[in-house]
Amino acid sequence: MLIGIDVGGTYTDAVLTDGKDIIRKFKTKTLHEEIMTSILNALDKVIQGEYESQIKRVVISTTLVTNIIAEKKYPPVALILLPGPGLSLDCYRYDTFTQIISGAIDYRGREITSPDESEIISAGSSIIEAGYQHVAVIGKFSNRNNAHEHFVKQIIEKKFPKLNIYMGHNISGLLNYPRRIATTMLHAAASHLFSTFCDNVSESLKKRNISAPAFILKADGGTIPLTAAAKVPVETIFSGPAASTLGAMCLSPKGQTSVVADIGGTTTDLSLILSGKPLIASKGADVEGFLTHVRSFAVRSVPLGGDSTVTVNNGKIDLLPERRGPAYCLGGPEPTPTDALKYLGRIEFGDMSRAVEAMENLASVTNSTPRETAQKIVFQSCQTIVNAIEQMFKNWEQEPAYRIWEIMQKNIIRPDNIVGVGGAAGGLIPDIAKMLNCNSIVPEHAEVANALGSAAAQPTLTVTLRIDTEQGSYTVLEDGSGGPVNKSTQFTKEDAVRLARDCLLDRAGELNMKEYLTNVEVVHCEMFNMVRGWTTTGKIFDVSIQTPQEILFYMDQGESFNE
Amino acid sequence: MNKSNQTGLIFFPAFDWAISPTHPEREERLLYTRDQIFEEGLMDLPEIKEYKPRLADFRDIARTHFCVPHIKDQVLEAHLIAAGSSLVIADALMAGEIKNGFALVRPPGHHAMKVVHGNRGFCNINNEAIMVDYLRSKYGLRKIAIIDTDVHHGDGTQDIYYHDPNVLFISFHQDGRTLFPGSGFTNETGGPTAFGRTLNIPLPPGTTDEGIHYILDNLILPVLKEFNPELIINSAGQDNHYTDPLANMNFSAQGYARLNEKLKPDIAVLEGGYAIETALPYINTGIILAMAGMDYSNVREPDYDQRMFTLSPDRKAKIEEMVSELLSVWERRDSIDLEVLRAKSEFSQRQKTIYYDTDGIMEHQTEKLKLCPECGGYLSISSQAVHHGLQCKVLCLSVPFHGCHTCKEAAWEKYEMAVNRKTYDYVYFQDRVSDTYKGFSSEKNTAWEE
Ligand SMILES: [Zn+2]
Ligand SMILES: [Zn+2]
Questions:
Q1: Could you tell me the pTM of the whole model?
Q2: Taking CB atoms and an 8 Å limit, are A403 and B297 in contact across chains?
Q3: Is B338 inside any structural domain?
Q4: pLDDT tens digit string along B312-362?
Q5: Within this chain, do residues B356 and B278 fall inside the same structural domain, yes or no?
Q6: Is residue B139 within 8 Å of residue B168, measured between CB atoms?
Q7: Interface TM-score (ipTM) > 0.90
Q8: Hey, are the CB atoms on B281 and A401 less than 8 Å from each other?
Q9: Which residue ranges form the domains of chain A, and what is each CATH number?
Q10: Residue after which a domain boundary falls, among B297, B331, B365
Q11: d(CA B247, CA B275)
């Protein structure tokens, strides 16, 4: 038995499943201020005191960190930055106490200038004076050499033991200094609260005699053990869209290309599954205006949902990107696409007489019949979503590429299916599918797709190495660890992959994930000959390996195809 | 024409392509540049808009070059992408999506001439020229200036526009007596119909920021102002840098950034530059920031010392003398009386010997320009070279962008005559007026059109 729980902004849903059928499902409004209560309530509702011992795992997707950041409920974090030469220092202005100190590293991790001890001490005292407890230290190219960040941490810790120090290279080793700054700052901000949350969940599971391992869902659709999740709080943001994409994936045919449309009240979230693999955004997530290094699904949000307001503009139907309340047929103030669907008999819920009233009112000012008006609203809604889908494919095709094979290989791909979840999905998806000339899937259990997606998600792990045999060293981008390698020009791609495997094992140990490492795949392995004069003096390797991105099960949908 | 405030950028390092594993044009060339501009987060700046490369069409290449025997024999995917990237930037500029743009691409192109028998100076096809001719063909632009800031003479670009009065080509470079390709002297000033539209400034080795900015301020910028082009292109080599292993100049990243700030190119296209660690990461960051109108004052090489960049008095005197000589050429640019020349001969003719250093090919060319008072005249180039031990003789006919009916008919007649008589191995016809590009192989007795 598997349990999946998704605590979203509006709803919390949970499922208990054996991987073939849904044994029990539950959906309720989220208690915004009491996320723990929402989780435990949902958990209790699906277990009902009878399956505890058979539960193999529990996966939770939560908006906790998203909320902490959006509502600025975190403790303030001061920054100590070592940007060195490059972009103007004016570019590093943040809405928090920031100290820029000397010290610079180059792209190969060689020191350009060393940091100055007295500057570090004075930065520390001014941070104490300003009343901060948390400090993030981030250096440009600290992903290539973290000595300066360690040096700063050492001195600050010795002089100011009350300060908590977070180092940039531990948070992300990807290139992009401003994103490393933002990600480290958010990490420092959310760390404490999220760690308490994880402890509470563990505690509560224990109390319920659930001994199965528990996981948190991440934005990239992978899971991380609860016991290690506190190390990567920011990676758990935007797990909602990941959950709904995975849910739709497990409710649609395996290995195909699908668009997932999660049609909510005010927005429709679109994501893509390309030949069975969810599309990951090419750049890190934008978290409340902070550009970060967090890997997440590529999700496009369209400001159109079942409750969008419909008005008439110069005698023409117009869909506004805003919600003024529920649909008219559900007691709301304005006509909406939901009313049009109700009028056309495409949805069950709602008051038909109010839907008729809404369409008649619009029809009287558009010089058409109520039926034409309803059809027009549905058509325009579908058209908006179809345009966004086309744009999404186009953006994917237009993503920058840095290698010849990437440019030669990318074909134009169009979806096999559109999978709809959310209240208005049943009414709109078949029309959208016709416009896109693909299959329409509105699966059963769509209302708990997020919980199902969480239940189906698997642990994932990636390591990316930069190996520089001339310098005789390597670094792991994901956590800033590293070590020496042989200064030999005989180092091969096979050696690089072998080293990456060892690092993946180490990291799996660190994150309590060793038992899930059954199988790994090489994402890429690139080798650069370093030539100085006319002789090869070393090699640089960029190598990345990961556990395969798969879900645990697919549920057969039988007769749900419309065409 | 542009409302956008963004600078377009295509970064195409071709991480999977090299001329050979230890050649300066190898996978590693833009690796550290990638590291630097990605770590700086330049692609995230609201001032920057990143584009994806595309492949140029064979037609785009045929509009500029005569590739012998066929385009596919001279051009790899990497070349098509480097040229295509420049076209993406050109389209974005013309669509008003960007205010200017930089194609940070390899392989380079400025040594590729009109006729291409092989690779010279690491170049097979000329990215800037293909872009300029595309802009003229697709958008009807007329006057364009190309400023070549690479340390090597842009002999390929010069060759392509030598008889074109609508394209101003200015190259400054290390004196050809001390560096490949050994050309680019002050007396190379354009053909009879385009006199003064080619200007060369051969600089003494060791010329610094101060020297280069002297020619920029006193020659290039004033000439550009008078020429008043619709677009300015920077053929942006980076091998004037003080650490470049292939040349001996003394230019810095700050110097390059300031040059772009003053020159304000609409489009810059990367050319050479082989100090892949000590120069390229810094120069490219500087150029991108300068083109985006951002503060680049904090961009500097680790060993940068401002005192290294003042100019010695003897070099200064030499440069000042050249600038005044070239200014006087520019002043006299309209002084050639075509009728006087036409009285002697209908054609202006020159012989050229061209060496392809990478491929070891020697080419002998006779270039004849019809002295047409109406359109500048068509070109007829007969060329021969040895390919893989086989002598290959070709005839190339080229009608200019604003070619007149008479010239087009005359060029076509010559093409047909050569096809019928089979006196050449290959015959090519390039008509930019109707955008038609034809070829014929005598051996196979087949004709084709690109
Ligand atoms: Zn060069
Ligand atoms: Zn003519």
A1: 0.93
A2: no
A3: no
A4: 999 999 999 999 999 999 999 999 988 999 999 999 999 999 999 888 899
A5: no
A6: no
A7: yes
A8: no
A9: 77-192 (3.40.50), 302-442 (no CATH), 462-546 (no CATH)
A10: B331
A11: 10
